[in-house]
Design goal:
Elements: H1 10-64, E1 67-72, E2 75-80, E3 83-90, E4 93-100, E5 104-111, E6 116-121, E7 134-142, E8 150-159, H2 162-167
Antiparallel strand pairs: 1-2, 2-3, 3-4, 4-5, 6-7, 7-8
């Protein structure tokens, strides 16, 4: 009578190891994709948050401004009662420099992303006459698609002095 050995054959062990290695490789690829997707999502959320912060600050500055001038599509200056705010766009980011009397200079940078670009303009009315108290910023993205390579993300039109007029005491005249 033959004795039966208990255990696994070499072929069985090799099959189990190869299946385990295959499953481990698939799990690593899935994990790598999940991490890449998470990183890209975080980057997009940061850029969207920066865009919202920039638009809110821009609108607030223009509403408090006495006057605003668009030097070029990449540069805009707003004169406040106690200082000046200058915006410039370069390399996917907007630089805001605020210079106030007695308080010095404060600088902020809003990173909008490599594919986004902005243009400051002075909008015109239907008769094609520029409206002197308004400033517009167009935020666009480069989609990379052939029929329409750019997409408009946001258009913001702000009127100079709006907040100053709304917060003026009742007895004070213009």
């Amino acid at each position: 009578m033959k004795k039966m050995k208990q255990g696994f054959t070499l072929i069985e062990v090799l099959v189990v190891l190869s299946v385990g290695g295959l499953l481990t490789g698939l799990a690593i690829q899935i994990l790598e994709r999940a991490l890449t997707t998470g990183t890209n999502t975080t980057k997009q959320l940061d850029e969207a948050r920066n865009l919202n912060r920039f638009v809110d600050q821009f609108r607030s500055d223009i509403h408090m401004a006495i006057e605003a001038s668009v030097d070029s599509p990449e540069k805009m200056v707003a004169r406040l009662e106690n200082g000046v705010v200058a915006y410039s766009f370069n390399d996917g980011a907007v630089q805001r420099i605020e210079t106030t009397e007695g308080a010095g200079t404060r600088s902020e940078r809003y990173v909008l992303g490599e594919t986004r670009f902005i243009a400051f303009t002075a909008p015109s009315n239907p008769d094609r006459v520029q409206v002197p108290d308004r400033v517009q910023v167009n935020v666009q993205s480069n989609t990379g698609l052939k029929p329409s390579p750019t997409r408009t993300d946001r258009v913001v039109v702000a009127e100079t002095g709006r907040r100053r007029r709304l917060t003026r005491p009742q007895g004070e005249s213009q």
